Amino acid sequence: MYHLAVAGEWEAAVASGTDYRRSTLGASLDEVGFIHCSFGGQVQRTADLFYRGRSDVVLLTIDPSRLRAEVRVENLDGGGDLVPHIYGPLPIGAVVRLDPVGVDRDGGLGVGPLVDEG
What we know:
Structural class: alpha+beta
Strand content: 25-35%
Mean pLDDT: 93
Strand order of the largest sheet: 1-5-8
Helix content: 10-25%
Low-confidence stretches: none
């Protein structure tokens, strides 16, 4: 399971020793009620839709077994694509890998090589 984060927001959580509480770009867990995540085959689309052109993005690889909060695989937008949502804070220790995400000349983020598509 994956989450795209703004590097500074992730680093602030790590530095403070608290759980990560950002839902998505520009929105907190408290505002939205959950943290948006993706499965491997969904990360590139999320990057293209919401983070295009940003050079301050990191990809968090999350081990769901290390979460304290419920994970729901759902679609709240009415489409057919199911995505994981964490209904609570993300413990720093649940992130098992952190990768900076590069940006190509056209503004696309290169997450493909960083994810397991399975």
